């Protein structure tokens, strides 16, 4: 007899496991299917984010930043240490331990919420039936009243730079190097490319990043992008814009990379090449031909604003649907889908989803850029405050960057907040909360911020919008 569940979730990444837990919190009988397998051959919950993305990359970013600070900044604090060395094996062991703890934690959460965690492949059939194929077993059919598809995304491979067994790698491969490459090429200056490039540059690699677009960080505010580009250049990252890779081939002397830029045909040879040109929805083997689910030309599952697919009772959330490929966006979609299944009113404000790049300095933003507001035709005003004028930032020896706020002239609503600087990924949360409640610039101006703190930069930027900054000259 086939198993039956109120909700079957396919995928146990940040979107899937959170959806499963929320559904279980509503008293529903839930199963969560996932087939992720790590390089050691072991299966684990958590998807790309915990196993090969967000978490391991942040672990390496933290380790490499501490190493960089010990080598270059400690002496400014009066700390004298001998020349630091990095034990790459120990760094990687620490990273792997963090990943194991967190992925094991998800398995524990599923068990604690009485969710049946199924290790294997899930495939949606017609009539909300799911074919489950265990990793070491035969396919079986599961009945579901509701299904949530949360299968995530996978790196895009370039035909001109196919991945090899270690010389030309994807983002996961770049997290697994057992030695610092003398030279490293990165294709793509987006979030992933910048973070991975930063890790190995701090540890001593000569890093060249090839970006096909002419604008650096085109998705970010122009002022923030300019500041970030200057800082990365000072750190030794060689970012070449308008550089389109035409071929990459691994050989005995490294990887030869051919690319075109404004000066014509160019080439370089690097020890390792990371291809980080984006990700595509991962729906391989997910949908039976008669499942009835619509997808777009890029393979994303089509959904409405509440993540409903073309089949009643079937939802899709996370990276496999439209919108930014962000773990927190996927998690909140999972919560929304589970709440809707349980009959509750639920929605997600897609206008107020923060983005963060965990480089040093960090980059974070929420809402519209100045250019986007300008194109909308709405009258606006801006204010900014540099961390160079922040007492806390000076004490931390991290004064690069600024906070910038874009607000409406008519009703003073905060339309966008953009930060490049220390702890930007934490500071942005104040802006997210403010914008979720449609706060005005004056609301932030009249909110008391602790002194000395980095959050004062947010306060001063809000004051600067109306030329009322107290600790920096107004325009």
TrEMBL record:
GO terms for cellular component: cytoplasm. GO terms for molecular function: dihydrolipoyl dehydrogenase (NADH) activity; flavin adenine dinucleotide binding. Residues 353-462 form the Pyridine nucleotide-disulphide oxidoreductase dimerisation domain. Its cofactor is FAD. Gene3D superfamilies: 3.30.390.30, FAD/NAD(P)-binding domain. NAD(+) binds at residues 188-195, 211, 278. It is found in: Cytoplasm. FAD binds at residues 58, 122, 151-153, 319, 325-328. Keywords: Cytoplasm, Disulfide bond, FAD, Flavoprotein, NAD, Nucleotide-binding, Oxidoreductase, Redox-active center. PROSITE patterns: PYRIDINE_REDOX_1. It catalyses: N(6)-[(R)-dihydrolipoyl]-L-lysyl-[protein] + NAD(+) = N(6)-[(R)-lipoyl]-L-lysyl-[protein] + NADH + H(+). It holds the Pfam family Pyr_redox_2. Residues 5-334 form the FAD/NAD(P)-binding domain. Disulfide bonds join 49-54. One of its GO terms (biological process) is 2-oxoglutarate metabolic process. The active site is at 451 (proton acceptor). Binds 1 FAD per subunit. Its EC number is 1.8.1.4. The active site is a redox-active disulfide bond. Belongs to the class-I pyridine nucleotide-disulfide oxidoreductase family. This is Dihydrolipoyl dehydrogenase.
């Amino acid at each position: 007899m086939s198993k039956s569940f109120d909700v079957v979730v396919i995928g146990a990444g940040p979107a899937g496991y959170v959806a499963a837990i929320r559904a279980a919190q509503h008293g529903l009988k839930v199963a969560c299917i996932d087939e992720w397998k790590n390089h050691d051959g072991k299966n684990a919950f958590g998807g790309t984010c915990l196993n090969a993305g967000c978490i391991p990359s942040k672990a390496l970013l933290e380790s490499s930043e501490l190493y960089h600070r010990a080598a270059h900044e400690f002496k400014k604090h009066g700390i004298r240490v001998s020349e630091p060395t990095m034990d790459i094996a120990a760094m990687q062991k620490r990273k792997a331990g963090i990943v194991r703890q967190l992925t094991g934690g998800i398995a524990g959460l599923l068990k604690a919420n009485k969710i049946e965690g199924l290790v294997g492949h899930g495939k949606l059939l017609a009539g909300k039936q799911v074919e489950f194929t265990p990793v070491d077993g035969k396919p079986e059919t599961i009945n579901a009243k509701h299904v949530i598809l949360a299968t995530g995304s996978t790196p895009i491979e370039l035909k001109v730079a196919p991945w090899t067994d270690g010389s030309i790698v994807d983002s996961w491969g770049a997290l697994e190097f057992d030695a610092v490459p003398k030279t490293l090429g990165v294709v793509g200056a987006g979030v992933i490319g910048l973070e991975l490039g930063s890790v190995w540059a701090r540890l001593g690699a000569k890093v060249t990043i090839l970006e096909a677009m002419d604008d650096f960080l085109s998705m970010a505010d122009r002022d923030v992008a300019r500041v970030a580009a200057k800082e990365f250049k000072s750190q030794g990252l060689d970012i070449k814009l308008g550089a389109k890779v035409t071929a990459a081939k691994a050989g005995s002397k490294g990887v030869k990379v051919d690319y075109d830029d404004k000066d014509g045909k160019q080439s370089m040879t690097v020890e390792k090449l990371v291809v980080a040109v984006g990700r595509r929805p991962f729906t391989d083997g997910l949908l039976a031909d008669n499942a009835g689910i619509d997808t777009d030309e890029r393979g994303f599952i089509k959904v409405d604003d509440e993540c409903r697919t073309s089949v009643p009772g079937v939802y899709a959330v996370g990276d496999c649907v439209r919108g930014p490929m962000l773990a927190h966006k996927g998690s909140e979609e999972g919560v929304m889908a589970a709440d809707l299944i349980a009959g509750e009113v639920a929605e997600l404000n897609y206008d107020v989803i923060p983005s963060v790049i965990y480089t040093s300095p960090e980059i974070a933003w929420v809402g519209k850029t100045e250019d986007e507001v300008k194109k909308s035709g709405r009258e606006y005003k801006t204010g900014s405050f540099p961390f160079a004028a922040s007492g806390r930032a000076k004490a931390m020896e991290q004064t690069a960057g600024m906070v910038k706020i874009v607000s409406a002239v008519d009703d003073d609503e905060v339309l966008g907040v953009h930060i490049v600087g220390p702890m930007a990924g934490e500071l942005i949360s104040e802006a997210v909360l403010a914008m979720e409640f449609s706060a005005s610039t004056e609301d932030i101006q009249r909110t008391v911020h602790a002194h000395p703190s980095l959050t004062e930069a947010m306060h001063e930027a809000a004051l600067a919008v109306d030329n009322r900054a107290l600790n920096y000259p107004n325009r």
